Each structure stands twice: as structure tokens, then as C-alpha cells.
Amino acid sequence: MDPEKTRGQGEQQRTGTTSITARDDSLDGLMRREQRALSRGTLNYGMTYYVSRITLIVASAIVAAGQNLSRSSAAFLVGWVPALSLLVAVLTALDTWLKPQQKWKGFMESRDTLSDLLVQVDNGLPREEARKRFAALRKEHRRQNIF
Asked: Residue 40: which domain range?
């Protein structure tokens, strides 16, 4: 058996209806790793957004009601008002700087676009076209969401 002919056969894998070589597999692997990273980013920014917003709402309400709390059953919260005021200021600054809602939306859009691209690849989209679209997606994602 000719070693040159058998080498390529051992490197081939089957993905959907498209046969890909080991060299092309690096694109597939890279796209799938990027999809996992985008999914993690979506979850992280989504959780950051909601936790920070809920914390801001609750802490702001306690700070605003500070004096009225001293005459209620929640009087123990009055001692926390200075710390909560600082927390509100810090979270507001971080929210303004990091923009977790915008990044969350951007990560979701990029993740969904990449998922669609992976489906197209599995359905026979040429590798070179997939590579170009993937590169454009990454460039656009970085431009919009990594700031």
C-alpha cells in the first residue's frame, strides 16, 4: 500500500455531509471553541447584568428609605446605609463602564450567528466561504463587543 495515499485517509473525518481533512478540521474545531466561548460570555454578561441591576435596585431603595427604616422593623438596615451607598456608586460606575447589557446582547447575536454558520457548514457550505464568514464574524464581534 502506498503511504502517501493512506496518510490522507487516516486524517479524514466525517462531519454532517462534508468530508474534511485534518487541516480543515482546525477551522471546525476553532469555530466550535469560539461558539463555546461566546456561550460562556453570553451567560457571564447576562448574569452580571441581572445581578448588578437587582442589587442596584434593592440597595438604592434601602438607601433612599434610610431614615424611615429607623422607625420600622427593618431598623437594622440603617447601619448598612453608608456601605450600601458606596455599593450603589461602585456598581453604577462599573455598569456604565462595562456596559454588561450591550455586551450580553452582542455576545448572544454573535453566538447565534456562529451557530447558524456551523449549521451551514454541516449542510455543505464550502470551507473557504465558511472561513471568510467566520473571520468577518470575529472581526465584527471584536469591534462591537470588546471595548
From this structure: 22-145
Q: Count the neighbouring beta carbons within 10 Å of the beta carbon of residue 106.
A: 22
User: Rounded to whole angstroms, how far apart are CA atoms 98 and 106?
Assistant: 13
Q: What is the pTM of this model?
A: 0.70
How far apart CA 64 and CA 85 sit, in angstroms, is: 9
CA 35 to chain centre: 9
Residue 17 lies in a domain: no
Residue 47 lies in a domain: yes
- Structural domain contains residue 7: no
What Å distances lie between residue 100 and 37, 52, 93, 108, 144, CA to CA?
16, 9, 12, 12, 13
Mean pLDDT in order along the chain per 10 residues (147 residues): 42 41 70 95 94 95 87 85 94 92 94 96 93 95 87
Number of domains observed in the structure of the chain: 1
